[in-house]
Design brief:
alpha+beta, about 425 residues, four-stranded antiparallel β-sheet, single chain, seven-stranded mixed β-sheet, about 35% helix
Length: about 425
């Protein structure tokens, strides 16, 4: 669906201008805002027909706080769930965070494995096949440049302090226009993370690596255990789940509420600074099961839950499950993730994360070869046309994987539809992996 500005022929700035005026900013403030907040094009927005033109770049020499004053102002008045202090976690929640820094009891603690002792075949069999099993792997990041550059807020600022990252999207007033991104340089975000008193502070989840982020992307290498992503075969397959690699940073009380990763993916997450508390529950979607996990049920599934302070679930639900013994009966597993640790979360597992202090991490969603039988079955049911395209690509480019894990269906089952273009022979390139 075309955006409002595309329909009217307006520029992106024109659309933003209308949005800001509608929100009560005067003309001078709007002019300043459009200058002060840098914008980056998204691959999800079509730029066809408008070839890039090399133009001289004017370097803004003003101090960062002055350049991003309007970004800070917008953060102070928008996204009320990132400003609320109703639960008082910044003060009273400190004891909760301190308690969660201690390792969980052995019967709830997920398994730890040094990467040197973990063979790929054993990993697939023990932790990936079927419903899988979460595991914390140590030592995968030993040779990463990020081990030094991301090791603290001070180190991150020293290397990337002026690099802008998206902190928030301001939704269109009309509900149909393009959201307006709000950016901050890493230095100012680090300062915000240290000083704010919100129950659920703004959390950076960078999912689009612009040229400004090239060095960040080069600071880490995808571990060999996770190098084969079956969604990474052709550009057409990749578009099914395009944004799959993320740079994450946030202070105490940030995190993610209980959820299941999308598109039947598993995930790995490597922490380079700080401490994260993780919890995971086996797959299950019945209302009764979800209710026990403290998740919305029925017609209320997902309504507002993601915007609740993550610490609230740990205070209200986690504590009760542990105290009553239901945690063990439900198969709950948990762990404290420390710098250098990589957690693996299998497909379908409900999981939540609470950042206990300043944290910097990188994560990626993917489909591993051993997941193919379960994932293909679900895709054939829910997304049959994509499943057929995927199966064709696997037969062509990953024949050995298809032979081992495919569903044995004949090629005719996945024949092209008349309106499809058979471009599955176009292998994906490195430049397309992190757009």
């Amino acid at each position: 669906m075309a955006s409002d500005s595309a329909v009217t022929g307006e520029s992106a700035d024109d659309g933003y201008r209308k949005e800001l005026v509608a929100r009560g900013f005067d003309a001078d403030e709007v002019d300043d805002l459009l200058l002060d907040i840098p914008s980056f094009s998204s691959d999800d927005e079509a730029d066809e027909g408008h070839p890039a033109v090399d133009t001289p770049q004017v370097v803004d020499q003003r101090p960062l706080r002055e350049r991003y004053a309007q970004s800070l102002e917008l953060m102070a008045v928008h996204a009320p769930h990132h400003r609320s202090e109703d639960d008082g976690f910044a003060a009273s929640g400190r004891s909760l965070l301190e308690q969660l820094l201690s390792d969980p009891p052995d019967h709830l603690r997920l398994r730890y494995c040094p990467c040197a002792e973990l063979k790929e075949a054993d990993f697939m069999k023990k932790f990936v096949e079927g419903d899988g099993l979460p595991v914390m792997i140590t030592g995968l990041a030993q040779k990463w440049r990020a081990q030094e550059r991301w090791s603290s807020a001070e180190q991150l600022i020293a290397h990337y302090g002026a690099v802008p990252v998206k902190v928030w999207n301001i939704a269109s007033v009309s509900g149909f226009g393009k959201p307006m991104p709000v950016h901050l340089p890493i230095e100012l975000y680090c300062e915000y993370a240290e000083k704010n008193t919100a129950d659920f502070p703004y959390y950076v989840f960078l999912k689009e690596f612009a040229p400004e982020h090239d060095d960040l992307r080069e600071d880490y290498v995808v571990p060999e255990l996770f190098a084969e992503d079956l969604y990474n075969i052709t550009p057409q397959v990749r578009r099914f789940f395009k944004q799959h690699a993320y740079f994450i940073m946030g202070g105490a009380r940030t995190g993610s509420n209980l959820h299941v990763d999308p598109h039947y993916t598993c995930a790995w997450n490597t922490l380079l600074s700080g401490h994260k508390r993780w919890v995971a529950f086996p797959p299950g979607e019945s209302d009764e099961y979800r209710a026990e996990l403290g998740l919305p049920v029925g017609s209320n599934r997902g309504v507002g839950f993601a915007k609740q302070p993550p610490a609230r679930w740990w205070r209200d639900v986690h504590a009760k499950l542990v105290k009553t013994g239901r945690a063990r009966e439900l198969g709950m597993l948990e762990a404290v993730q420390r710098p250098g640790d990589t957690i693996f979360v299998p497909r379908g597992w409900h999981h939540a994360v609470l950042n206990l202090d300043w944290t910097v991490a990188v994560t990626q969603n993917l489909i591993l070869p051993a997941m193919l039988p379960e994932v293909l079955k679900r895709l054939r049911s829910k997304f049959p046309r994509f499943a057929a395209r995927w199966a064709r690509a696997l037969r062509l480019h990953r024949a050995e994987i298809w032979e081992k894990y495919g569903d044995g269906s004949p090629p005719e089952k996945d024949a092209l539809h008349q309106d499809e273009i058979d471009d599955d022979d176009e292998l994906i390139t490195d430049s397309e992996l992190f757009r």
